[in-house]
């Protein structure tokens, strides 16, 4: 199993550009989530999904869109990039069992917006 | 925000010493997890402790949970240089989404 994969690993955008960060998992996990990590801020939840076709907002959703058309994929879209979105983005997945289980994290995408 | 808060923010010890990190939270939880993050990498799960448990062990790791004080501690015994990393607690609350909320982390440096 590849686990959780993220692409790209690095990305530089200009202000106003849009892009999609890709996330995929091959563990048949129902739960998937996107976090951003900024220095001194820990990980903050952007959006999450509890199954295909179901998404919800986390703590910092503004400026980001998600969709979950399959169990495996959970892309994160930046609609109009801003310098405040410069961060490291992590995708995670976990299994569904009516309670919280361990999160499996991808390697991250380091995004710089100039 | 409902995130837990780790203490201390940074910890520097010698190889062979024990390292203790603490996590405090504000409201009742279903469970608490500890994760490790090596520099530039994704987070790796260490231990999950549920609200009805008081202590769990995994190798050189010992986690305690005191729900009356709303706090948890992570003890790493006989630290090694390879334990150098950031450690995060993550809490999951009743009525939530089963997606945990992460604290800001403790940065541990173990000197050889």
Q: How would you describe this protein?
A:
The complex is a heterodimer of chains A (114) and B (112). Chain A has strands at residues 4-7, 10-13, 19-25, 31-38, 42-51, 54-57, 64-66, 76-78, 87-94, 104-105, 109-113. Chain A is mainly beta. With 112 residues, chain B is an all-beta fold. Helices cover 0% and strands 54% of the residues of chain B. Chain B is built from no helices and 11 strands. In chain B, strands 2, 4, 5, 9, 10 and 11 form a 6-stranded mixed sheet that branches. Chain B has a 5-stranded antiparallel sheet with strand order 1-3-8-7-6, with no helix packed on it. The relative contact order of chain B is 0.35. The mean pLDDT of chain B is 93.
List keywords for this structure.
heterodimer; A: 114 residues; mainly beta; seven-stranded mixed sheet; 11 strands; 0% helix; globular; B: 112 residues; six-stranded mixed sheet; five-stranded antiparallel sheet; 54% strand
Q: Please provide the count of β strands of chain A.
A: 11
Measured by DSSP, the beta-strand proportion of chain B falls in over 45%
Kindly state the percentage of residues in helix of chain A: under 10%
C-alpha geometry of chain A: globular
One letter per element, helices H and strands E, the order of chain A comes to: EEEEEEEEEEE
Percent of residues in helices of chain B comes to under 10%
Number of H- or I-type helical stretches of chain B? 0
The CA-CA distance between the termini of chain B, in Å, is 37 Å
Please tell me the overall pLDDT of chain A. 94
Largest interface: A-B, 30 and 25 residues
The parts of chain A where pLDDT drops under 50 for at least 5 residues are: none
Largest sheet of chain A: 7 strands, mixed
Sheet having the most strands of chain B: 6 strands, mixed
* Whole-angstrom Rg of chain A: 13 Å
Classify the beta-strand content of chain A into a percent band: over 45%
């Amino acid at each position: 199993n590849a686990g959780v994969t993220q692409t790209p690993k690095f990305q530089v955008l200009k202000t106003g550009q849009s892009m999609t960060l890709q996330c995929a998992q091959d563990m048949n996990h129902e739960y998937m989530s996107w976090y951003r990590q900024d220095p001194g801020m820990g990980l903050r939840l952007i959006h999450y999904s509890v199954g295909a076709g179901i998404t919800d907002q986390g703590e910092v959703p503004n400026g980001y869109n998600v969709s979950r058309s399959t169990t495996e994929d959970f892309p994160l879209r930046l609609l109009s990039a801003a310098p405040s979105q410069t961060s490291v983005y992590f995708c995670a997945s976990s299994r569904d069992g009516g309670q919280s289980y361990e999160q499996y994290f991808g390697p991250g995408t380091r995004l710089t917006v100039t | 925000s409902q995130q837990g808060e780790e203490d201390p923010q940074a910890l520097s010890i010698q190889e062979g010493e024990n390292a203790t990190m603490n996590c405090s939270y504000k409201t009742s939880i279903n469970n608490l997890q500890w994760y490790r993050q090596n520099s530039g990498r994704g987070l790796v799960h260490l231990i999950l402790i549920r609200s009805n448990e008081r202590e769990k062990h995994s190798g050189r790791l010992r986690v305690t949970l005191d729900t009356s004080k709303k706090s948890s501690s992570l003890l790493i015994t006989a630290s090694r240089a390879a334990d150098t990393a950031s450690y995060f607690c993550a809490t999951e609350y009743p009525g939530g989404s089963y997606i945990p909320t992460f604290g800001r982390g403790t940065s541990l440096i173990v000197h050889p």
